[in-house]
Each structure stands twice: as structure tokens, then as C-alpha cells.
Write a structure and sequence with these properties.
There is one protein chain. With 347 residues, this protein is mainly alpha-helical. The protein folds into 2 domains: 219 residues, Rossmann fold, CATH 3.40.50.620; 92 residues, Tyrosyl-Transfer RNA Synthetase (Orthogonal Bundle). Helices cover 55% and strands 6% of the residues. The strands form 2 sheets. It has a 3-stranded parallel β-sheet. Strands 4-5 form a two-stranded parallel sheet. Strand 4, helix 9 and strand 5 form a beta-alpha-beta unit. The chain binds tryptophan (TRP). The site of tryptophan has 13 residues, from strand 1 and helix 8.
């Protein structure tokens, strides 16, 4: 079967390290392997509007930030088709027919939507568009016949719902759509990167993010105030490694090479952890290592961002070209979809 990769992000601000380890890293890996017939990266503005319908300018402005973050992060416009969700009206058509195949109870059971609903405190005013966004996500995936979806674990319920819709559609209207699977990060620490506060996952609204576009100074300050172990007061005190964000990020970002470069006193990250647990290693010490490793990681990303930023017309042109290409595929696939649904009256 043809391998088609598709993934996307909601444009509600700049991309952060959680986005990077959760899915961008996988896109880069796939892109260099090259064993796929198409890779799409979609900016999910329609989905972002489902809970930001009162703030369209935020979404509009974020589109530029996100495409810059992709390009700066190394996603290659020669190997990947970037497009904007709302510019593909076929997605809306798919969504409309999929809504027949999903019950209200099923939508309310989606665990990711459930936790978002509590967080947003909609109470008795849940917008239907928000509740139904997993259905629109099923359209994103199936319209492009995507088989492999690089995502973080919070998106697994969406893929499960997508595959339910696919099976139902195929059994009712004949085998038309293909099922998909998730491509999760290889490193489990990256499944759900915590924010710098250590309490929640990295999230704009909580102000606990390190952005791909953060300057050296911003990074320094964020690492300096990072949550460690509140009981580790004196350097000589034994410290905890579990739940200590500095170690979580070291697990996510340090490899043996970068560790050796920035830590001369310990052989490996494991050795450093052991020493910290025993007592005698200060928070400033571990933070300095982390800062250096993250700064080395972000330096080329910042440089590429600056380079692309010089010519925003070119950046928008990349997005426009990709959207045109995606639209062509969408039109073709919609025709087959309508045929299966018996609504291809004049063909
Ligand atoms: N729901 C995803 C997120 O919040 C964004 C998204 C929209 C997506 N459509 C998609 C991801 C299709 C993968 C495939 O990050």
C-alpha cells in the first residue's frame, strides 16, 4: 500500500519544544528516510477556530509564525507539501457526511476532547464545532488517503475515531477509504513533554513553554527558573530525578555527544543522575548543562528563521503552492467519495 504521511498543528501561537519532540522530529526523520509517496503538513486553522472563533486575528497571525517555525525547524519544502486547512473546501464536505456516522455519545467520550472541555469551562455552552472537531480531523486524514500520522499521544483518540469512521463508511458504501496509524516519538519522554513549571504539558495558555524562536536570553531565563526538586535546597541534599523537569529535558534532548561536550565531570547522563540523587550536585550545575544543550539545538533553528523571515513573500508562496497542490488531490479524491455515496448525479 502507498505510504502517505499527513500531520498538522493548530495555528494558535508559535511552536514550542513539545511540538518539536512530539511530532516535528518524526517528520524530519521521515523526510530524510524518504520512503513515502507524499508528505503533507497542514496548518489546521479551521480546527483552531473551533475554540477561537471569537479571535480570528490570532489564528491569522499565527499562520505566518507556524510556517516559519516549520521551515526554521528544518522541514523541507522540496520534500513536503504545506497547506492551509480552510483553503480546502472538500474537507468541509467530507466532514458533513462523516457527521452522519458518529453519535453524540461517541463524541463526548473522546478523552482528549473531554479534558479540553473541562479545561475550557464551556459548561452548558459547548460549541458544536468544537465537539465535532475530531470528525473534521478524520476528514483531514482520509481525504488525503493518509496512512501514517506523526503525532503526540494526545492525538491517539482522534486516530481511533478516524478509523472507526473509515470502517463504517467502507461497510456502508463500499471499500473507499484507508485506515491510518500513528507514528509516535521513539523516546517515551517525548510523548508528553512537561512545561517548565513541571505541572502540566507544555501549553501556551499556561505560560510554561520554550519556543523554537526563543532568543538565547529568553532561553537562559526559562531554564534558570525551571522546576526541579523543591526539597533539594542545599547542594549537599539528595535530589529527586523523577518529575525534575531539568532531567526530563535532558532525557529528551541530550545525546552522548552533546552531553560529553557540556558536562566534563560525569561520564554519562545516568552518572549525573546518580550523583544528583546522592547529593552534592547543585541545580545551577544541571541547568547550565541543559541550557548549553538546548542553546546548541536552537541556534541553527534561530538562524534559519531569520533567513526565511527576510523574504516573507517567498514563505507565503511556499504555502500557496502547497495549498494548490493539495487542492488538486482533494478534488480528485472527492469525486471518488461522492461516487461511493451515490451523490455523483451528473457524472
Ligand atoms: N489536532 C491536532 C493538534 O491539536 C492538529 C491536527 C488537525 C492534526 N488535523 C490533523 C494532526 C490531522 C494530525 C492529522 O495538534
Amino acid at each position: 500500500m502507498e505510504k502517505i504521511i499527513l500531520t498538522g498543528d493548530r495555528p494558535t501561537g508559535k511552536l514550542h519544544l513539545g511540538h518539536y519532540v512530539g511530532s516535528i522530529k518524526k517528520r524530519l526523520e521521515m523526510q530524510s528516510l524518504g520512503d513515502y509517496s507524499k508528505m503533507y503538513v497542514m496548518i489546521a486553522d479551521s480546527q483552531a477556530l473551533t475554540d477561537n472563533f471569537d479571535n480570528p486575528d490570532k489564528i491569522r497571525d499565527s499562520i505566518k509564525e507556524i510556517i516559519l517555525d516549520y521551515l526554521a525547524g528544518g522541514v523541507d519544502p522540496k520534500k513536503v507539501v504545506f497547506f492551509i486547512q480552510s483553503m480546502i473546501p472538500e474537507l468541509t464536505e467530507y466532514t458533513f457526511y462523516y457527521l452522519n456516522l458518529v453519535s453524540l455519545a461517541r463524541l463526548e467520550r473522546n478523552p482528549t476532547v473531554k479534558s479540553e472541555l473541562t479545561q475550557k469551562e464551556f459548561r452548558n455552552n459547548i460549541p458544536m464545532g468544537f465537539l465535532c472537531y475530531p470528525v473534521s480531523q478524520a476528514a483531514d486524514i482520509t481525504l488525503f488517503r493518509a496512512t501514517d500520522i506523526p503525532v503526540g499521544v494526545d492525538q491517539l483518540p482522534m486516530l481511533e475515531q478516524t478509523n472507526e469512521i473509515v470502517r463504517k463508511f467502507n461497510s456502508l458504501y463500499g471499500s473507499t477509504l484507508v485506515e491510518c496509524k500513528a507514528l509516535l516519538p521513539d523516546n517515551e519522554t517525548c510523548f508528553r513533554l512537561p512545561g517548565t513549571d513541571g505541572k502540566n504539558k507544555m501549553s501556551k495558555s499556561l505560560g510554561n513553554c520554550i519556543y523554537l524562536s526563543d532568543s538565547e536570553e529568553e532561553l537562559r531565563e526559562k531554564v534558570r527558573s525551571m522546576y526541579t526538586d523543591p526539597d533539594h535546597i542545599k547542594v549537599s541534599d539528595p535530589g529527586k530525578v523523577e518529575g525534575n523537569v531539568v532531567f526530563t529535558y535532558l532525557d529528551a534532548f541530550a545525546d552522548s555527544e552533546s552531553f560529553k561536550k557540556y558536562c566534563n565531570d560525569y561520564e554519562s547522563l545516568d552518572e549525573l543522575k546518580k550523583a544528583y540523587q546522592k547529593g552534592g550536585v547543585g541545580d545551577m550545575y544541571i541547568k547550565k548543562i541543559l541550557f548549553n544543550i538546548l542553546n546548541e539545538f536552537l541556534t541553527p533553528i534561530r538562524a534559519r528563521r531569520l533567513e526565511y523571515q527576510k523574504d516573507m513573500n517567498n514563505v507565503m508562496e511556499i504555502l500557496k503552492k502547497g495549498t494548490e497542490e493539495a487542492r488538486g488531490v482533494a478534488k480528485e479524491n472527492l469525486a471518488k467519495f461522492k461516487k461511493a455515496l451515490r451523490i455523483d448525479y451528473f457524472d
